[in-house]
Design a protein that fits this description.
By secondary structure, this protein is an all-alpha fold. The chain has one domain. The chain has four helices and no strands. The longest helix has about 45 residues. Belongs to the MIX23 family.
C-alpha cells in the first residue's frame, strides 16, 4: 500500500519537468493527479490501520475479561499477550505512517510547489 510513497521521487523525476523542460509537459496537471493519489493512498492506509487497531483492541478487551474470570488459564494468558503485542505493533505503525507521509509531502512540495497549490481545507 506504500508503493506511491516509495516511488514518489522517481515519479516526480519522470513526470514533473525541470525549469529547462517546463514548456513540454503540463506540470500542474501532473502534480494535481499526484496530490490526489497521495491523499487517497494516505487516507486509505490510515483507515485500514485504524480499523485493525479497533478490531484488535476489541479482541484484547474480550480476552482481558475472560482472563479475569479464569486467572489459571495459561493458554488464555498467552493469547492475551500475543494480541497485546499485535496491538502495540499496529499502534506503532501509525507512527511509521506519519514519517512516511511527511517524507512524501516534503518531496512533493519541493517539486510541485510552483506548479500546484493544494486546497486549503486539506
Amino acid at each position: 500500500m506504500r508503493t506511491i510513497d516509495d516511488r514518489i521521487v522517481h515519479e516526480l523525476n519522470t513526470t514533473v519537468p525541470t525549469a529547462s523542460f517546463a514548456g513540454k509537459i503540463d506540470a500542474s496537471q501532473t502534480c494535481k493527479q499526484l496530490y490526489e493519489s497521495l491523499m487517497a493512498a494516505h487516507a486509505s492506509r490510515d483507515r485500514v490501520i485504524k480499523n485493525c487497531i479497533a478490531q484488535t483492541s476489541a479482541v484484547v478487551k474480550n480476552l482481558r475479561e475472560e482472563r479475569e474470570k479464569n486467572l489459571d488459564d495459561l493458554t488464555l494468558l498467552k493469547q492475551l499477550r500475543k494480541e497485546q503485542t499485535k496491538l502495540k505493533w499496529m499502534q506503532s505503525e501509525l507512527n511509521v505512517e506519519e514519517v512516511v507521509n511527511d517524507r512524501s509531502w516534503k518531496v512533493f512540495n519541493e517539486r510541485c510547489r510552483i506548479h500546484f497549490k493544494p486546497p486549503k481545507n486539506e
